[in-house]
Amino acid sequence: MLALGYSLFLISSLLALWLYRRWRASERLLQGVLETVSSPLYYTDEHLLCIRCNEPMRLFACSITDSLEGRYFPELLSKESAAFKKETDEQLLKSGIPMAFFWEPVDSKGIKHRCLVHKRRWSPSKKRHGIICEIVDMESYLNLHEKNRHLDRYLAQQSKLAELGQILLAITHQWNKPIVDLSIDIQRLQKEYHQESLTPEKFADFARGSIQTLHHLSNTIGDFYSFIKPDFKKREFSPYEALLESIALLQGRFDYHFIQCHLRLIGKPKRLCGHKGLLKQALCTLLNNACDSIVESHSSSPASKGKIFVTLCFRGDSCRFIIRDNGLGVSEEKRERIFYPFFTTKPHGHGLGLSIAKEFLLEKFNAPLTLLPPPKGGGARFEILLPMEG
Predict the structure, then answer these.
(1) Would the CA dihedral through 152, 158, 161, 166 be positive or negative?
(2) Label partner for 267 (CA 20 to 30 A): which of 106, 162, 177, 233?
(3) Residue 315, domain extent
(4) How far apart are alpha carbons 190 and 186 in whole angstroms?
(5) Is residue 106 part of a domain?
(6) What catalytic reaction does the record list (predicted)?
(7) Is 299 inside a domain boundary?
């Protein structure tokens, strides 16, 4: 009897130890799930052990702890675990199978919520598996999405106003010299008339030169008007013409800062259907940024000459814009954030960054805007890959 009792005690002790280790392992397993969640619906027990799961996984958790209660805990995770959470979450969900369904839970006030649940299969071991769910309240999501749309429109308007200010400044510089030349020609014509040395040939030359000057000023106004007018409908246009008009709008600013703009065309120009004004806005943003970088670079080394190189290559079913300058360039630290929303290297109130231009190009043209590796001589290089399907 003594031996039998000792054997039963030993077996029960080993069983208790095995159950305890299993409970601790399961607790660590669920705690690992906690470290991988973002902030949707959680369950918690009296030990504040939290998991994100569906019903099968909840039943598995209930077999370990006494009870689980559904609550919202958007701020459960500490900031220190954010990096580990992101890394673990990526590893955990990389091999998962995505699924989705709608769920309409009723809260304590009797209000029904329409939720979209994204779930992935989770297999931490060969024996057990569950489903990790991300639950989104669709009403809140749609309200947030609508607010973001209004914010995007507002930022787009602010970005365009910033470009308009730069273009108006460029037009001011661009008009200054022709108007001064025209004024001098009129004074010279008046002087020759009073001296009775004005000949029909001189008057014809004056008229011809004045008409050319007025045509140049009129074209500048036409380009500016085509830039500011709303661009709601898709129309057929030439990317090459859009590039020429963008350079013409900023030519006055280039001349004022003694910046040479070199244009290289590869292949035969083609036409596509799209929003010409939005493409011109993106090109003007890149050209303005190149000009700003060169001006800032000249302030530290006035002897250097500012140059902007624009290459437009038509090849196959796409055209490629490459805009390069010999300015300050983009540092390694800023390269990672150059397309972040609201990130800009300019002083506060003088720019909204490149995120708006990048989003417009992707949304309207499916054209990615990328920052290429810096050229050997310094500066920055940006590329727009524009599909020609329209």
Answers:
(1) negative
(2) 233
(3) 145-387
(4) 6
(5) no
(6) ATP + protein L-histidine = ADP + protein N-phospho-L-histidine
(7) yes
